[in-house]
Amino acid sequence: MATHPSPAEFAREKHVSYLKTCLEILPHEYESSDTNRMTFAYFCLSGLELLDVLDSTLTPERRRVWIDWIYAQQILPNLDKPAENEQLCGFRGSPFSGSKFDVNGVRDAQLPVDAANLAMTYTALCCLLLLKDDLSRVNRPAIINALQYLQNEDGSFSQTYQSMESDIRFVYCACAISYILNDFSGFNVAKVLDYIKKSQTYDYGIAQSPDQESHGGSTYCAISALRILNRIDEGLLSKDKTIFWCLSRQISGFQGRPNKPPDTCYSFWIGGALKLLGAFDLIDFDSNRTFLLTTQSRHGGFSKWPPELNRFAEWIKYPSDLLHTYMGIAALSLMREPGLVDLDPAINISKRTIDRLINESVFWRE
Amino acid sequence: MSSIENFIDQPIWDDVEPIPQDDGPDPLAPIAYSHDYSRAMDLFRAITRKKELSERALKLTETIIELNPAHYTVWNYRQQILTAIDYDLNEELNFVDSCAEQNPKNYQVWHHRQIVVDKLNDSSRELPFINGILDDDSKNYHAWSYRQWIIKRFNLWKGELTFVSSLLEKDVRNNSAWNQRYFYIFNNPEEVTEGIINSEIEYAIEKIRLTPHNISPWNYIKGVIEKSGKSIEILENICKELQNADIRSPHLLGSLVDIYENRARAGSNKDKQEAIKICTLLADEHDIIRKKYWEYRKHAIAAY
């Protein structure tokens, strides 16, 4: 039988070069992530920050032009008739709509081609912070005002105005945005709590929306949202049972749902949830770390799964991708892997970036 | 030449001035787009600017979706076109069928299907379609979510319990099917009688006997017990029965800890000692990966 091909060590330098390459140009397969491009920029920037090389990687000039690029994706109220597009304000993921590049943002946005997206607004704000921007060009009133149009009757949020895609992922984004902008006046918190309560299932994990199966990703989103709102005890039907649900997902690394195989990203989603619940120390660190290291690719980055033996007793490796690379690094940071910077599990950027948000950004300094 | 290339380079587009993406002087994380995608998006930018809702625009959205099925803006524009040109929605479902087969885990495809079927107000194709997707991946989250919607929207409860049972016959570890069972029992219009509860408890016990290490029926039975206001004590018999058969599943032992802990809290020292003993067994032998958890439980119980 062939020997297991995975390195037993954290291949730090390879991950650095993988992320740097992706930051310069995302490979062709990310074409299908065109609308979510901001998220992938965030994975690169935040990953390099956790690896403690972001500062040394970027010149001030590079930071400046990328900050401009992000502000060029900001959808702003129409100057003459602000009421006409106030539902669309925030950040979009990329300039696919065809508007002219303008570092002052987009003033003529119209549905359906140009509208902000909650996940993109959240990751754009994170990217700005990672690039050391003080958020002074962010139109806070417009973003906070738009939240009321994105929250649905049941308490959930839609990712864009009038989209059917509405679930707990965007509840989290709305909370993280409100935290970064230091303003929670844009939505109905009671409805959010109600939605999160209804999404808890009979096994005390949390589903993406009511009646669905409990899931590691949505459990993270719900708990992180509650933590940001400072309402963990109020929002969870049983904190102890939810902790046990999370701990029960560990089988080496973590699975996302009962009876599913472990997957790199759940070491973060569930690990982060446990950290926020104050129970992270109850996991088995060694098994988790060993699992994560086996999902590293030879060429840098992490894949979803460890290599698998095929029927010819050959190890088949899965390709790495940016989401799993970022989540793998973030998961190791939760366990204080040497050489990694500490992570804030609720906002999912480094703790020192959160410190900068609080001390230097315009919405917290005031 | 691919069919895509063929379509986007045809003379029917001669009257359209393509609009390239303006990504600024030094874009952040630019994507290495293929020629086809760039060209198709250049045309898309141009026709959306003109607000053109036409047959060729519909075909163009199909082209882009083939390259990037997650492009929610393109899906949204497609929905506008369908309405504007009064497109045959059954024909549209044929398109969605093939999209979903190729991208069964794509959010947009399922949302689009929901919009089309809602408008069509006809669910006849839906359950066979979802069953086909579940045949390939019986835990597909999108498929289950859509299935719950379709059942509620068109009142398709009849037959659902049989379907779920058949999936559990095939794979008793399918947690999605257990979740659907719970959804069915407590949401279908029929009153949840004591008889139904008891038969669900019996059903889960039978599956626990079959696979005592399978967490799903344990979670299910506890969920049903709690929802119906019964006591977890009723699990003691099955736990003892399995224990006597030398089965040491962590779920079985964990359930005993819960039962004994309740009694310890009410003052029983014997149960307290028993709970502590089982916590030790779990920590040291039967659930070692959660060693720290069981030790934590043990200390909490010892403190009563």
UniProtKB/TrEMBL annotation, chain A:
CDD domains assigned to the protein according to its UniProt record, in alphabetical order: GGTase-I (cd02895)
Superkingdom of the organism of origin:
Eukaryota
Query: Carries keyword Secreted?
Result: no
InterPro entries the record matches: GGTase_I_beta, PGGT1B-like, Prenyltrans, Terpenoid_cyclase/PrenylTrfase
Q: Which UniProt keywords apply?
A: Magnesium, Metal-binding, Prenyltransferase, Repeat, Transferase, Zinc
Cofactor(s) in the UniProt record: Mg(2+); Zn(2+)
What Pfam families does this protein map onto?
Prenyltrans (PF00432)
Query: Per the UniProt record, which EC number(s) apply here?
Result: 2.5.1.59
Record's GO cellular component terms: CAAX-protein geranylgeranyltransferase complex
Q: From the Swiss-Prot or TrEMBL record, what is one GO molecular function term?
A: CAAX-protein geranylgeranyltransferase activity
* Residue span(s) of domain Prenyltransferase alpha-alpha toroid: 10-349
Regarding protein family, the annotation reads: Belongs to the protein prenyltransferase subunit beta family.
Assembly and partners?
Heterodimer of FNTA and PGGT1B. PGGT1B mediates interaction with substrate peptides.
- The name of this protein is Geranylgeranyl transferase type-1 subunit beta
What organism is listed for this UniProt entry? Ambispora gerdemannii
TrEMBL record, chain B:
PANTHER family, from UniProt? Answer: PROTEIN FARNESYLTRANSFERASE ALPHA SUBUNIT/RAB GERANYLGERANYL TRANSFERASE ALPHA SUBUNIT, PROTEIN FARNESYLTRANSFERASE_GERANYLGERANYLTRANSFERASE TYPE-1 SUBUNIT ALPHA
What keyword terms does UniProt attach to this protein?
Magnesium, Prenyltransferase, Repeat, Transferase
Q: Which cofactors, by name?
A: Mg(2+)
Q: What is the lineage of its organism?
A: Eukaryota, Fungi, Fungi incertae sedis, Mucoromycota, Glomeromycotina
Q: InterPro entries in the record, alphabetically?
A: Prenyl_trans_a
> What's its EC?
2.5.1.58, 2.5.1.59
Q: Which family does it belong to?
A: Belongs to the protein prenyltransferase subunit alpha family.
* UniProt cross-references to Gene3D superfamilies, sorted A to Z: Protein prenylyltransferase (1.25.40.120)
Q: Which Pfam families match?
A: PPTA
Its Gene Ontology cellular component terms are: CAAX-protein geranylgeranyltransferase complex; protein farnesyltransferase complex
Q: What is this protein called?
A: Protein farnesyltransferase/geranylgeranyltransferase type-1 subunit alpha
Any idea which GO molecular function terms this record carries?
CAAX-protein geranylgeranyltransferase activity; protein farnesyltransferase activity
